[in-house]
Amino acid sequence: MHKFFTLALFSLLASTAHAASFDCSKPTKPVERMICETNNLSILDEQLAGAYKAAMKAASPATGTNTTEVLKSSQQRWLRTTRDACKNVQCLEKAYVGRIVFLVQWNEDAPANSKIDGKLDGNYEFSHDMEFANGTHTIAQDCLTIKSTGNDQAQVSTVLTQANGHLCSLKGKFALAGNVYSYLPGKGESDIQNCQIKLTVKHHQIVLSAAGDGCNSRCGAHASFANGASFLRTDKAKRACVAD
To answer: Is residue 115 part of a domain?
Structure first.
């Protein structure tokens, strides 16, 4: 797909007018001046802005779990560590084409026929800004640990920090079918029987979502597994997620 997308993208460049997603009369960085002075880069920048806007729309709460914050964080990191690190046109062209492919695939599920079991093993973290009721802010962190146990099952731990610092935590067994892990409630877990918790594996993220009346049974006030969370598949962490 990447090869086809790249060819289609550059064929589009030849017929698109000179453009840029930012004001070229006020470039503030050397890389921005390079983009404004190079027709192909200017058009790629416009293409990327459109792909980012579409990805943000697809990540909105209206389409399910809100993954806009993790996408926004990923985009800011890409600008800072990848785009702005380029010193020549060739580097920027490669960076832009790769990022556009990433954004186009952002909300697409990973292929159901691919062998996901085992490939996702590890620890994931996502840091996000959180506001308390008194107006103060802090950096909160969600975490997720996946460890395959064989037979298309995995042991999963997750802790989500939500409204006013209240936590949702879960530790237990998930079964894998296609590209979706589904939580298997254990004996005595009647409090969460009415909550279907899933981890959906997408091309670039792992999305936790839930539905049902029991989804806030293990969470603090105004917090719920149904609020969901998202983790970038590249955001691996050394520390395991410890859930109650």
So the answer is: no
Number of structural domains in the chain: 2
Q: How many angstroms separate the CA atoms of 222 and 161, rounded?
A: 11
Same domain, 75 and 140: no
Q: At 180, which amino acid appears?
A: V
Task: Give the number of other CB atoms < 10 A from CB of residue 13.
Answer: 15
Give the span between the Cα atoms of 137 and 44, in whole angstroms. Answer: 36
Contact 197, 183 (CB under 8 A): yes
Whole-model pTM: value is: 0.81
Question: How far, in whole angstroms, is CA 106 from its chain's centroid?
Answer: 7
| CA dihedral over 233, 234, 240, 242, signed as positive or negative | negative
The values of phi and psi at residue 227, to 5°, are -70, -20
Question: How many angstroms separate the first and last alpha carbons of the chain?
Answer: 42
Q: What is the domain range of residue 171?
A: 122-237
Question: Would you say 36 and 199 are in contact if contact means Cβ atoms under 8 Å apart?
Answer: no
Sign of CA dihedral 170, 201, 144, 231: negative
Whether residue 53 is found in the same domain as residue 131: no
* Amino acid making up residue 76: Q
Q: What's the pLDDT tens digit per position in 58-115? A: 887 755 677 888 999 999 999 999 999 999 999 999 999 999 999 999 888 998 777 7
| Residue whose structure tokens are 């990327």 | 48
What are the residues facing 49 on neighbouring strands?
none
C-alpha of 191 from chain center: 29
- Please name which of 81, 169, 163, 170 lies closest in space to residue 129, comparing C-alpha atoms: 163
What is the tens place of the pLDDT at every residue in 15-44?
Answer: 343 457 888 887 678 999 999 999 999 999
User: Which amino acid, 81?
Assistant: T
